Amino acid sequence: MDGAAEPVVKTIRIEATPEQVFDFIVQSSNMVKWLGLRVDFEARPGGTVRIDPNGRDVIRGTVLEIRRPSRIVFTWGWEASGASVPAGSTVVEILLEPEGMATRLTLNHRDLPADMLGRHEVGWTHYLARLKTVAEGGDAGPDPLADPESRHG
Predict the structure, then answer these.
(1) Backbone φ and ψ of 102, nearest 5°
(2) Pick from 89, 109, 107: which is nearest to 25 by CA?
(3) Residue 24 and residue 28: Cα distance in Å, rounded?
(4) Which CATH class is domain 8-136?
(5) What confidence tens digit (pLDDT) does each residue in 50-87 have?
């Protein structure tokens, strides 16, 4: 992709097993606890990824690879017409590695346009912190980035 920046790369440690973290990423009912008001994630190659994170925007992509409990790869972009990151135009790769009883999660989001790098850096930092909270048994609570009128409890 012309104008693509270096990928967004985020690494965090989560006090849960890779299997537990994996389930919070690939099961729609768990994913909605940290990333989105509504989530449809079909955890199989070719499966649909559709996430409404905030009541205003919708992310759409396709699952490229699922390898339990260590690797999840899917395309990512925004459904809106004329979006700077069109649906399915970028790739998110999540690697889960055991670290004792914990998990080292590395997220690599590639093919982003250079002018969208900062927005995705901020977004992934926010949402991975929420993933860490729920995977460790906590409650991330309502997402402050979501439209309060779009929250469906």
Answers:
(1) -110, -175
(2) 107
(3) 8
(4) alpha beta
(5) 999 998 899 999 999 999 999 999 999 999 989 999 99
CA 76 to chain CA mean position, Å: 9
Per-residue DSSP letters for the chain? -TTB-SPEEEEEEESS-HHHHHHHHH-HHHHTTTS-SEEEE--STT-EEEEESSSS--EEEEEEEEETTTEEEEEE-B-STT-SSBTT-EEEEEEEEEETTEEEEEEEEES-BGGGHHHHHHHHHHHHHHHHHHHTT----S-TTS-GGG---
Flag whether the pTM goes above 0.90. yes
Is residue 96 a contact partner of residue 115, using CB atoms and an 8 Å limit? no
DSSP, residue by residue, 107-122: EEEES-BGGGHHHHHH
